[in-house]
Every structure is written in structure tokens, then in C-alpha cells.
Amino acid sequence: MTTLPGIVVTGASGRMGQMLINVINESEQAVLAGAIERAGHAWVGQDVGVAMGGSAQGVVVTEDAQKAISEGNVVIDFTAPVATLAFAQMAAEAGAVHVIGTTGMTADETAQLTPFADRAVIVRAGNMSLGVNLLTQLTKKVAAALDEDFDIEVIEAHHHHKVDAPSGTALMLGEAAAEGRGIALADAMDSGRHGITGARKRGDIGFSAIRGGDIVGEHDVMFAAAGERIVLRHMATDRAVFARGALKAALWGLKQSPGEYDMLDVLGLND
Question: Which domain holds residue 256?
Fold first, then answer.
């Protein structure tokens, strides 16, 4: 019988779900304890390894999320906001670590996570790669060093299947820029430009979203002034970087007290 922590993956059939399962199976620090899919999904009732086109792994895909979560130590969740809130309640009831990579959550939805963090560890981040989190810190420092003569634009590109814009990572970078300038992003956010919009407002933080092909994730933060530009860039070419970051967060979370954390906490990069 293994003594390694058991990890439950939600949205097992999705691109991130399958990548997470592969990364967990390759790890010597954790085991796959459960795989969850929505009711009626074709994978439900199948061995997850067989469903993925390989050999049996001994883990059957289930629609009974509460039971699966109660049998694991950690839930890793890259699904949708409504589902994530339901999983957060289940994880809190089970005392399981909840690692959230779900994007597109509103401020109200993220606020609903707080009561669950009184009972369990929640690690949530718009992006779980080491490089992006370093980029976040750099963005904050550069924004703090430059005045409003430098316009800030966050430019992101993703595959054509992505359903939310700006991406969670772009918003994370925008928040970092706003924090560096000592302002609230909500007061300076400029996105969705179309038609005669008028001149750009001094001090705003702009967002541009590109969707196409199979782009995993590219993010630029551009600081543009008269005669010069500074561009900070991160490019992800393999979705496994997010899965490995999520696994790192899961293992880190097992050693923490209940509360809300992010990847900067996991990586020791918070001020």
C-alpha cells in the first residue's frame, strides 16, 4: 500500500486533465487517486488509462466527485468557475488541498472561495509556470520604476479553443502592473477596443487578446513611451509546464495550514 499522497484530477478528459494525469503518473512523489468527469460523459465508468488510449491504471473515471475527493489528499482543478466552486466546497469538507488553475473567475466567484479556505488549503493562480510567476514579479518592479509616460499593454495569445479573454495570466500580469503603480486594475483596465474609441487614457493598462491554432500560451507586457519600448515576454510551448507547476503546488500545499495561497507563495517569491 502506497504512502504517497493521492491526487484527484477534475475534468480528466480535457487537455489539462490528461496532461496532469501523465505528470502525476511520472512523478515519484504522488499517485493518481481519482479522475472526475461530468455526469453522462463517455469516459465515466472506464479505467482512465484505457480512456486515454493506453493501458489500465486501476483508476476508474467517476461522476461522483464528492466520493472521489474524500478518498484523496489533493484536488487539482482546471475546469470552469461554477464547477470549481462546487469542488472547493467538497475539498473543504474532506480537508483536501485544492489547487485551482481555473481561469475566467469573476471577483465575486473568487470571493466565494474564502470561506472554504478556513477549513482547507487553497492554492489558486492564473498560471502555474515558474517563468510566468517570475514575469509577474518583473512586471511589478518595472511598473513601479516607470511613470505614466510609459503606457502599459498586456498582449496574450492562445489556441482557438480558449473560451475566456483576457486570459487569467494576462489579468495576473495586469494586476502586477497596477500594484507596481499603486493603483487598482479595475480603475485602469482598458480592453475590448473596437471602433472609434478615442485616444488612449494616460495611465490605463491595456489588454489585447489573440486566438489561433494550437498556441499554448504567449504573454508580453509592453511598456511604451515616446522613442522607446520595454517588452517582457514569456512563451509556453508545452502544456506540461502548467501541470508540473500544479503538482509542485499540490505537494507544497500539503505542508501548509488552511488558507488562500498563490504560486508566488509556492515558489517563495512573495515579498
Answer: 6-124+239-266
Give the Å distances, CA to CA, from 179 to 99, 176, 187.
24, 5, 12
φ, ψ for residue 101, nearest 5 deg: -110, 5
- Read off the CATH number of the domain in which 185 is found: 3.30.360.10
For the chain, the domain total comes to 2
Alpha-carbon distance of 182 to 207, in angstroms, equals 19
Is 98 tagged catalytic?
Answer: no
d(CA 250, CA 95): 13
pLDDT in tens, 94-135: 999 999 999 889 999 999 999 999 999 999 998 899 899 999
Whether residue 158 lies in the annotated active site: yes
Per annotation, catalytic residue among 67, 140, 141, 162: 162
103 plus 210 within the same structural domain: no
Candidate list 41, 98, 141, 158, residue with the active-site label: 158
